[in-house]
Amino acid sequence: MSPQITAHAAPLRWAAQNDIQTLDPHSQNHSTTTNITGYAYEGLTRYNEKFQPEPSLASKWTQISPTQVRFELRRGVKFHDGTPFTADDVVFSFARIRQPQANMQIFVSGIKEVKKIDEHTVDMLLDGPNPVLLRNLTNFRIMSKAWAEKNKSVNPQDYKAKEDTYASRNAMGTGPYRITAWQPDQRISMVANKDWWDTNKGNVTEITYLPIKSDATRVAALLSGDVDLLTDLPTQDVAKLKADPKLKVLDGPENRTIFFAMDEGSDELRGSSVKGKNPFKDRRVREALNLAIDREAIRRSLMRGLSVPAAIMVAPGVNGHTPDIDQPLKADVEKAKKLLAEAGYADGFEVPLNCPNDRYVNDEEICQAAVAMWAKIGIKAKLSAQPMSQHSVLLQKLESPFYLYGWGVPTFDGQYTLQDIVHTKTSGIDGKGNYSRVSDAKIDQLVTAMKTENDVAKRNGLIREALLRVRDEHLFIPIHHQVRPWAMRSNVDTVHRADDKPEARFTTLK
């Protein structure tokens, strides 16, 4: 038995509906992917059980000045191949994650340079004071410079170009588990890293992750004992699973908002019946689409009560969310029709709608419900649903005029959402995930200000103002914040995580 295991050795079989997109830790900002790669790769910081940043590959940090932070790196840490972790790996990883094809740049936002001081010390030189630095660094994963060079993976995988690299198929970090195999759409296999620098609070020695797209098949696997933990529960089965004495269900809010986004940048809307202009540029059209949605009906009928109808783009638990500004619109078909008529679309129009069918709770069903609601005001949304792996490529190529998406907030701070998917798209970090080409000068100003504002009250005021403007300009159509139940065999003990990322270090099998 390896020294860090606190109880008897135990394998964990874990199923969810969605596979990872890559094993490259800098390529894709996709929750399932970052969850799984986080077993192998670590950041300088990590979250404790209460989502407060704590030391990880950095053992200590010191604020030298408002724009300079010194990180002392943990000594004696080894990568899975036995090579030592040093400052060179941090400097290399910083250069790697900042390349244009990397989709994780948001997590090094505000860092101008990472400078090696000695083998176990680096300085981060900042653009300005950075109130979310330690939270961002939880997802800035460190890769071995030597391993990347040896395996021709110095550059991050270009996922949207369908590039295949050694690092996209193999992982080699410092983390608590070694990923030993990935068979896409079938399974991912991991074993405990016996040389991990930390003590594992759980006793999970092996993990098999099973992406099972079919709701019925996932539930059947849990009921038959073929799976120990299920983190994508069909809403219609939650009550049945709660009543099963062989199982237990942990539920709690997830810090993820499900929403529709519209192409607001193109001069003509791709695939639409409207030619020569873009109806989504008109605030009245966006408001009409918003007013047509009956969120309460979706919560009651489709989600079986397992959702929180949303008005703003961040969920409860995220800094910036307050209940007073998260009061969803009530459906109003007549007002929506009137707004469309005022905008010159009394007869409505056709537009393609893209939707994932294996990523969020009832994602395709939400799209089908919305299509029916929009039809009542004359909007004919032509639905095309496909796996998230294909949906992501479509969005990153900016080829969807109208789409469903979900946005979690790994930093638990509203700046993350506003900077990544609302700020005007740039060639750098700002607007990296803005696939709908929203552009609002006032919001851009507010984001720029909040990035370096250390006064908590002032900064929260900036976040609030930006969230209100996103809401009141109807730049997105938020549907709900997800509630995420997990079901497990009665012998499994784990901690429910608001980021929907189970951690084996907090998991024990009896």
TrEMBL record:
InterPro entries: Peptide/Ni-bd, SBP_5, SBP_5_dom
GO biological process: peptide transport
Domain Solute-binding protein family: 52-425
CDD domains recorded: PBP2_NikA_DppA_OppA_like_2 (cd08498)
Gene Ontology molecular function, alphabetical: peptide transmembrane transporter activity
Annotated keywords: Signal, Transport
GO cellular component, one term: outer membrane-bounded periplasmic space
Family stated for the protein in its record: Belongs to the bacterial solute-binding protein 5 family.
Protein's name according to its UniProt entry: ABC transporter substrate-binding protein
